[in-house]
Design brief:
Blueprint lengths: L9 H29 L2 H42 L3
Length: 85
């Protein structure tokens, strides 16, 4: 990290979090639609609730990833400002 002067994998974590959220939303929509076509009311409700929980968890990931990236950038800036060149 110090030799590259940028946060290691911070952008990758942000991108992965966004991807996880998008996949969770699309999977929930498709599974709920399939349950609506083929299943009973209880199955539809169970599928929608499970998908909602997954979306909620995946929704927290981008916020955590952005916070971690900001912290790493602040650390890099503070280290570079105190290090003589």
């Amino acid at each position: 990290m110090l030799s590259r002067r940028r946060p290691l994998f911070a952008r990758d974590r942000v991108l992965g979090a966004r991807l996880a959220l998008a996949v969770s939303v699309s999977t929930c929509a498709v599974c709920t639609a399939l349950a609506a076509i083929r299943g009973t009311t209880a199955e539809i409700l169970a599928t929608a609730l499970t998908g909602g929980v997954l979306i909620a968890v995946a929704g927290l990931l981008p916020a955590r990833a952005h916070a971690r990236r900001r912290a790493l950038l602040r650390l890099r800036d503070s280290l570079s400002s105190t290090t003589p060149r």
